[in-house]
Write a structure and sequence with these properties.
This protein has 112 residues and is of the alpha/beta class. The protein has one domain: Rossmann fold (3-Layer(aba) Sandwich). Helices cover 33% and strands 31% of the residues. It has 5 helices and 5 strands; from the N terminus they run E-H-E-H-H-E-H-E-H-E. Strands 1, 2, 3, 4 and 5 form a 5-stranded mixed beta sheet that branches. The longest helix is centred in the first third of the chain and has 11 residues, at 16-26. The chain is elongated, with a radius of gyration of 14 Å. The model has no long low-confidence stretch (mean pLDDT 86).
Length: 112
């Protein structure tokens, strides 16, 4: 494939490194990844990570930004970029995590 896109789905996977490897495998050389996903700025409290309602709200499975970047680069992606976008402040405030959870545009590509 030339490109893989995803809209807030990867954070729902319990095995994100496998997701990243499979995406890379399906891409042609110089293929692109463009993802919108929920990420964190720091670890989430354990009780939130185990909360099924928070999983359904795309919060509990969110990766820390640095872990997302590391996961993609470990899978073999290059030019990984994470840019904050949007605002989910009502959901974030309800979870008591203001300033720690945010939506991001994540792009990367497979090397040639």
């Amino acid at each position: 494939m030339d490109a893989v896109i995803s809209n807030c789905v990867i954070n729902l996977s319990p095995d994100k490194p496998q997701v990243f490897r499979e995406i890379l495998r399906t891409l042609k050389p110089d293929g692109r990844l463009a993802v919108s996903d929920i990420v964190t700025n720091g670890p989430l409290p354990e009780e939130l990570q185990k909360n099924m309602e928070a999983w359904g709200a795309c919060v509990a499975g969110a990766l820390d930004v640095s872990d997302y970047i590391t996961g993609l680069t470990d899978a073999g992606f290059i030019d990984v970029k994470v840019q904050p976008k949007g605002d989910a402040s009502d959901l974030i405030e309800a979870a008591g995590m203001k300033g720690k959870i945010f939506s991001a545009k994540i792009t990367a590509r497979r090397s040639i």
